[in-house]
Amino acid sequence: MSRKYWKFHGGVHPEFHKKESTTRPIATLKLPKRLIIPVQQHIGVSPELLVSKGDYVFKGQMIAQMHKDQLGSPLHAPSSGIIASIEKHIVPHPSTLEALCIELILDGQDDWGDCQLEVIKDFQQCDNAKLLERIESAGLVGLGGAAFPSFVKVNSSAKQGIETLVINAAECEPYITCDDLLMRERADEIVDSIRILIKLLNPKQCLIGIEDNKPEAIASMQQAAKSFDKIQVCAIPTLYPSGGAKQLIKILTGKEVPAGGRSLDLGILCHNIATSYAMYKAIVKGEPLISRIVTITGDGVKQPQNMEALIGTPVSDLVAQAGGYTSKAQRLIMGGPMMGITLANDNTPMVKASNCFLVASIASLQQVHSIHSSQPQMPCIRCGKCMQACPAELLPQQLYWYTQAKDFERVTEHKLNSCIECGCCDFVCPSHIPLVSYFRFAKSEIRAQEKLLKKSDLSRKRHEFLEFRKAREKRERDEKRRKHKEALQKKKAAMKAKKAANGDASANDPKADAIKAALARVKAKKTAREAQIKNGH
Predict the structure, then answer these.
(1) What is the mean pLDDT of residues 60-83?
(2) What does the alpha-carbon distance between residue 112 and residue 414 come to, in Å, rounded to a whole number?
(3) Phi and psi (nearest 5°) for 49?
(4) How far apart are CA 528 and CA 506, in angstroms?
(5) CATH fold of the domain at 19-342
(6) What value does the CA radius of gyration of the chain take, rounded to a whole number of Å?
(7) DSSP state letters, 142-198
(8) How wide is the angle at C-alpha 522 spanned by C-alphas 517 and 527, nearest 5°?
(9) 376 upstream amide cis, omega within 30 of 0
(10) In the chain, N or C terminus with fewer CB closer than 10 Å?
(11) Angle 493-495-499 (CA atoms, 0-180°, nearest 5)?
(12) Distance set, CA 51 to CA 40, 84, 114, 312, 476 (Å)
C-alpha cells in the first residue's frame, strides 16, 4: 500500500558505509574475562548499590536498585562471577571523566542461578500492570542513545493515551547497522515486541520507519507484520538525520513537534526498535537488559560485523573478536562519525546506549565528515549552507557568532535547546568550523549559569526568609513587652484604686510609724555629720 511521506527541513547525504558490517550474521561475543559496569547508565539519578567487593553474583542478579518514584533504572549482572572492585573508571562520555563502576571477574559458568525472570509466553493474556512492572524491573532504557528509562516513557504514554506509535528503525547514522541486522534476523520477535507495546498503549496505528537503503530489513519486517492490520512498515527516503525523533515523526505523519514540546502532546510516541526487542526478551524470555547487539566497524578493524555482547564488555574484547586492529586504526568512536564521541582508549566499557564502536583512519572519516579533517579552521564566510542543512530550522551561523561573543542570552533566544547536535552544519561548513562543539559549549555554559542562578535565587530566598523571621521575632518580642507593660500598668492601677477605696491603711499602722521614725533618725544623723564637716570639726 502506497503511503505519503513528508520532508523535514535540511538534511545531508554523507557516505553511509553500511555494507562493510552487513556481510556477516550477528555473532555472539565470547565471554570476556572481566566486565566493567558503570553504575549509572540512564537519564536520572544513580541507583543504590546492592553488592560489595568480594560478593559472588549470578547472571541476571540485580546489583543496583532504584527507589520508588525515582527517575532511573536498575542494574543487573551480565554474567556470573566475583565483584573485584567498585571504584571510578573511565566511561564512554563526551566529558572523558571517570564514573563509579563495578568490576566483575567472570567465572566462565554464565550461571543464572535462580535470577532469571519469570517467562510470560502469552503476553496477550497478561495484565498490563504486570507487563509494566516487568519493563521496570528488567532495567530497560532507550537503546537509541538517549537511555531514558523505558518504564517511565511507556507508563506515562499509557496514562495519557496515544493515537500513533512510531517505531524508529531508520538507523540513519553512517556505519551503524545493528538495527538493520536485528530486523533481518529477528523480525518475528520484533513484531511480537511491537504487539506488546500496542497492548499497553492501544494506539490506532503503528508505523515502522526504515530508510530505503535497507531492503533486506524492510522485506523481513513486512513479512513478519503482514498479519497485523495496525502495523505498517514504511520505507522512507534515505536522508540524514531521518532517525531523529522529531524528523521521523514529520516524515511519517506530517506533524511537527514544536520547540520545547513533546510528541505525546500530538498523540504520538516514538520508540526505538532495539529497545522494543529488549522488551520482548524481558517479557517473553525473562531476561533483564544485560546484553545488546552492537556494530564493530571501520577500516581500523579486520572483520567489521555485528555481535551480541554483554553490557560492560571492554572495547578491546569487541575488537579482538572482530579480528583485531589494522594499521589504519587511528580513531576510536562510540557511535557514528556524525554524532559519536571519541574515546580515549579501548579499555572503555560498552554500556546500554552503545550501538556502535567505529575504529577508523582519519582519511576515511574525512570522506564522511569534513569535521574530521586535519585542515585548520577558517573564518566563517556567511555562506548560509549550515542554515540550509539544519533539520531543526535554526540559524547555526548566528548561534556561532553569539557563542563566540559569549552572549548566551541571544543564544537562548535563537533556540539553541532545539539543536539535536546531528552535525549537519559541521558536515556542510566549507570553513571546517566545529559548530556542534561550539553549541555543546554554549549549552554547558547556559546550564552552569542556570545552576548558578538557581543557587543565587535560593540564597536570596533564604536571606529574605531570614530577614522575615528576624522581623517576625522582633514583632513578637515587642508585642510581648507591650502586653507585659500593659499588665503591670493594670496591676498598679488596680492597687492604687484599691488603696483609694480603702483609705490609707498605713496611717494607723504601728509598723509604718516605726519605719518613718527610723528613717527620720537616719536623716537627722546624716544632717548633723554634714554640718560638722562643713564647720571644720
Answers:
(1) 93
(2) 52
(3) -65, 140
(4) 29
(5) Rossmann fold (3.40.50)
(6) 37
(7) -TTTT--BHHHHHHHHHHH--SEEEEE----STT--HHHHHHHH-HHHHHHHHHHHH
(8) 125
(9) no
(10) N
(11) 115
(12) 15, 11, 17, 16, 54
Residue 473: Cβ within 10 Å count? 10
Give all strands of the β-sheet with 205-211 in edge-to-edge order. 231-236, 205-211, 164-168, 268-272
Q: Are 83 and 52 in contact (CB under 8 A)?
A: yes
SS3 267: coil
> Looking at residues 455-464, what average pLDDT do you find?
89
* DSSP character string of 71-92: S---EE-SS-EEEEEEEEEE-S
**Residues 84 and 53: beta-carbon distance below 8 Å:** yes
Sheet holding 48-49, edge to edge: 48-49, 62-65, 75-76
CA distance 75 to 38: 9
Task: Tell me if residue 396 falls in helix, strand or coil.
Answer: helix
Report the distance separating Cα 263 and Cα 382, nearest Å: 34
Amino acid at position 96, single letter: T
Question: pLDDT at residue 499 above 70?
Answer: yes
pLDDT score of 49 more than 70: yes
Interval 244-260: pLDDT, tens = 999 999 999 999 998 87
pLDDT for position 509: 62
pLDDT exceeds cutoff 90 at 94: no
Q: Do domains 19-342 and 383-503 have the same CATH topology?
A: no
Give the span between the Cα atoms of 444 and 116, in whole angstroms: 41
Question: Rounded to 10 degrees, what is the CA torsion of 249, 253, 258, 259?
Answer: 20
Q: Which fold, 383-503?
A: Fumarate Reductase Iron-sulfur Protein; Chain B, domain 2 (1.10.1060)
Q: Please check whether residue 340 is in contact with residue 358, taking contact to mean a CB–CB distance below 8 angstroms.
A: yes
Taking the CB of residue 403, how many other CB atoms lie within 10 A of it?
24
> Residue 240 phi/psi, 5° resolution?
-80, 135
Sole residue written with cell 535470577: 115
Nearest to 442 by CA among 413, 414, 406, 415: 406
Give the span between the Cα atoms of 57 and 117, in whole angstroms: 15
C-alpha–C-alpha distance, residues 289 and 279, integer Å: 8
* pLDDT single digits (tens) 286-329: 999 999 999 999 999 999 999 999 999 999 999 999 999 999 99
Say how far apart CA 323 and CA 314 lie, in whole Å: 15
**For residue 278, which amino acid is it?**
A
81 falls in which pLDDT band (50, 70, 90)? very high
The size of the chain, in residues, is 537
Angstrom distance (rounded) from CA 235 to CA 437: 33
Please tell me what DSSP assigns to residue 173.
Answer: S
Mean pLDDT estimate for the chain: 91
Domain residue spans in the chain?
A: 19-342, 383-503, 510-537
**DSSP H/E element including 324:** none
